[in-house]
Amino acid sequence: MKKLIYSIFVFGAAMALNSCEKELDIAQHGVLNYDTYYQTDEEAESGVTALYLEARGMGMNYILGKNMLTDDFWAGGASRADNADLEALNEFTFGSGISYLEGMFTGYYQIVYKANVVLGHVDESSEVKKRCRAEAKVFRAWAYFELTSMWGNPPLVDHELLPSEYSCPNGSTEQLWGLVENDLKEAIASGALSEKTAKDDATTWRVTKQFAQAVLGKAYLWQGKNKEAAEAFDAVINSNLYELFPSDNYGNILSYNTKHNCESICEFNRVKDPNNIMDNFDMTYVMLGWRTDRLNIADPTIHPSNGWGFVVPQKNLYDDFVKEEGVLGHRLVNTIKTYAQLNELGVTILPGNTMIGEGYFNWKLRYEPEAFGSEIVGMIHHQNMRIMRYAEVLLLAAEANLGIDQTKADNYYNQVRIRAKLPVKPATLEAIQLEKRLELCAEGTRYQDLIRWGIAYDRLKDQGAYCPILDSNGQVEKKVYNRDPSKFGFKKGKHERLPYPAKELSLNPNIQPNPGW
Hints:
This protein is mostly helical. Helices cover 43% and strands 8% of the residues. Strands 7-10-11 form a three-stranded antiparallel β-sheet, with no helix packed on it. Strands 1-4 form a two-stranded antiparallel ribbon.
């Protein structure tokens, strides 16, 4: 919020000053005048387009940053200190100045600001404008769900601020969740949000009524309002507009060529356009790709020739898959590949080289050559940013229904298991926790779940005790870099909430730091 409040709003305040001399009162070109803009449908659409672009632009911080805060992945890279920020997040040695968290925090508040602009200047004089306002409320609510579930009590900004309001204090828990609930309920009740026409409708790319209902369900569940959460998730399920992606094509569930599939609840577009390739500039998938300068790849169709090898699966994630599914589990082999399995595909570590990892490679978020095309390479791609899919809704609905309707809980939980070619069994909280880990790994949900379930300390207390180094023979050496146990790993009373960015604290004296920071 530092740039949001102290740059954007200060700039706006400066623009509002009256000129001392009439001769100098000249209209500034290239700057929007909110008193005259947002009058047409097209101008209203431009305000909402800015929200989609802002959300999509958060991909790197959102995907890499949130995954590092879990027990699913190592920071990875070629060697130690390849990316110190990712290592710090992964090992819980970070402070309030870390760039990934600052980027996430600022990105969410940019969404809040842009939503407030739309809501402050777009009226309801047309159906298009009504939809734009409803979408802005959904975006603002989603941003505040993320901020509240990870930072606890961030400042509440529900309108464009006056200069006297720039230094906002922490919001209360009741105010923050109240804003999320009210925004979503109003957007849903407006009747203006888009909806898919059928399960196989891949053309509806806007945030939908069902996405708003799913986020509302999450907000209720995070507050312990399970009955209300169950009703919200049931509304999504009973819409009959979504279904699980076909089991036999599960390996492509997040692929570039299955955008907006029958399971997609929300994703933000990147369109392949050789004439506008800079619109698709993003380092995310290069970061996620295997460390290919250390690999010999016999078949170039398996993987492109450039990737940086971050977000590497941990052995304990693989072991949980094996325990539940077996070594050849249908979902496992479409999510993680072992080094031995890559060898069978003609992929080996070059002799004399090493990389960080325990011999497990991310297949679910693999770096596909076709996502880049012959005319675009490297950090230019047309892979969408996925936010939520139907499997998450089913598992959230199963959890919400525990103790309320066990038949529903079992049904929703087992739909996901059946797709994974696993036998049905009763839904319990422990079973749902495991199923969410396996089904949604790498999709940015686990850190918030671990905190909500109160099991983060047990799962994350030893993060950073060692760093695994994989060599060309498949051998793993556990290198110790953090010698003092008090300096690494999840700490009770501290890491349940993320730190507010140091720059924000320095600019806004009214924000109280979270405990332990």
